[in-house]
Amino acid sequence: MKTSADPVRDYLSAVEREASALPTDRRQELLADLAEHIEVTRAERPDAAIGEVLAELGDPRTIAATALAEAGSGAAGAPAAGGAGAPARRGKVHPLVPLLMLTVPFLFAALLPDVPAAQFCSTLFRVIGAVLLCTSVHWTSVQKTTGALLAAVLPTVAISIWISLSVVPSGDGPALLANLATLALLAGTAAWLWRVRRA
Predict the structure, then answer these.
(1) Residues 66, 109: one domain?
(2) Residue 88 DSSP symbol
(3) Residue range 51-85, pLDDT digits in tens
C-alpha cells in the first residue's frame, strides 16, 4: 500500500474528495480555509504534531458534510462520521455585527457625554464587539488582532488618558476634535475589516 509523506496534503485531498458535491469555488474556499488554519496553528504551536493538528480539525467526512449542509446542498449523500450533531465550522454571526458594535456605541457615548449609562453601554458593547471580532471566522488572526487594537484598545487607552489628565484643554473644541479623530479611526478600521473579510 502506498503511503504519502505529506499528511496535510492527504488530509486536504480527503476533504476535497468528500466535498466533491460542493460547487468548485466553495470547495476551493473550504480547502484554502483549512490550509490556512493548519498553517496558523502550526505557527502558533510549533511543538504540536501534525497528526494532532489534523485531529483537532475533525474528520474530513464531517467537515465536508457540514460544508454541504451550509451550502444548502444537504448532507444526505455524504455520511457524517461525527453524526448529525456535528458542529458547524462557519461563523453564525454576520461580519457586520462586530464592526457595528465596535463603532456605533462610540457615537452614543460622544453625543451623551454626561449620561453614565451611555458610557457604560458604549464600553460594554465595544467589549462584546471585540470578542465577536476575535472569535469570528471571517478574518485571520493578524487581522483580528489589528482590528481589536485599533477599534477597541487604542481608543479606550486614549479616552482614559484624556479623562485622567489633570490639564484638559478648556472648551468644546479640543473634545470635538478628539471625538472626530477617534470616530475616524473606528470608521477606518471597520471599513478596512469589512474590505478584507472572508465571505
Answers:
(1) no
(2) P
(3) 888 888 888 888 888 888 877 634 344 443 343 33
Residues 6 or more apart whose CB falls under 8 angstroms from that of 108 comprise 118, 121, 122
DSSP reduced 3-state for 90 = coil
Burial of 136 (0-12, 13-18, 19+ CB in 10 A): buried
End-to-end CA distance of the chain: give it in Å, rounded.
Answer: 40
**Residues 59 and 122 both lie in one domain:** no
Tell me, yes or no, whether 82 lies in a domain. Answer: no
| Nearest-10 Cα torsion for 62, 134, 139, 70 | 30
Whole-angstrom CA distances from 109 to 77, 78, 89, 106, 130 are 52, 51, 35, 5, 17
All residues at 6 or more sequence positions from 63 whose CB lies less than 8 Å from its CB, including other chains: 15, 18, 19, 30, 34, 57, 89
> 170: pLDDT confidence band, cut at 50, 70 and 90?
low
Query: What total of structural domains would you count in the chain?
Result: 2
Nearest to 189 by CA among 142, 152, 151: 151
Residue-number span of the structural domain to which 112 is assigned: 96-196
Residue-wise pLDDT tens digits, 178-199: 778 888 888 898 899 889 887 6
Contact status, residue 192 vs residue 157, Cβ threshold 8 Å: no
Name the residue with cell 456535528: 86
